[in-house]
Amino acid sequence: MGLASSPLHRYCADPDLVMIGDRWYLYCTEDGLPDWSSRAFYVYESGDLCHWTRRKILDLDQVAWWHGGQGAWAPCLLVRQGRCILYFVADGQIGQAVAPGPTGPFRAAQEPFIARGDYDCLPIDPSVFVDDDDVPYLLWGNGRAYMGRLSPDGLRLEEGSVRSAVPDNFREAITVCRRGDTYYASWSENDTRDPSYRIRWSSAPSLDGPWTAPQVLIKADHAKGILATGHHCITRVPDRDDWIVAYHRFARGGQGDGCHREIVFAPLDFADDGAMVQVSPQVGSYWYPARNAVTP
């Protein structure tokens, strides 16, 4: 397939972008299938966010608790104590798999990490946040957002640490990042099949708040044919104040809809007062380190 406006040249969604050493690793949902029915996870590796190598890292047939239900969605990666931990969604539950490196092979745990019914939400769309004190957190949810502190090795949730909230018009894909003394929460609103799917953000001096009034981070640009801009991640380039947002949208041209989505990258800037600057979606995709667009 062409997909000239996406550097992956494939239907993909739900990005999680991680930089390890001088390499980028992207974990995402394989898309282009009815009802989001992918049965495997892949990692994409790049040196510039433009040219990518794709490798399979986990098949749902290798997940003991998956019995052919809903597909493989929304993976994210945490690096802890020399191991890579993949959190992922299968059959509407969050799983966990461990590997010695970012390209696998990953071995899944025998039971779901967060099972359906454990909390008052659909347990999907995990993301990880590691605070400046090296404490890791897992976030997830649909309709209600949850966050829990992980153990130092990332293999379990600390007892009594889980909290929940419903950010303004929250739908899914909650994520947190920190810049200096400010925490930023951002999430998706509406439905991924809705052209108005978009990203909002809020900030606070601590994870306990108080949180500012939500503002738009990325929304559709109908004039450019860019629709359904949502389910993102925010990544800081290590040791630099350079930030990148990856998000998905309807694939431009052809079959663009909620099951045919593409991933692109954009620089994320901050105003003098610390506010996130609203991203202006472009047809092409950003690449690093030079701030240029890869245009079709």
UniProtKB/TrEMBL annotation:
**Alphabetical keyword list:** Carbohydrate metabolism, Glycosidase, Hydrolase, Polysaccharide degradation, Xylan degradation
User: What highest taxon heads this organism's lineage?
Assistant: Bacteria
Q: Does the entry feature the keyword Hydrolase, yes or no?
A: yes
- Family of this protein: Belongs to the glycosyl hydrolase 43 family.
Name of protein:
Family 43 glycosylhydrolase
**To which species is this protein native?**
Bifidobacterium kimbladii
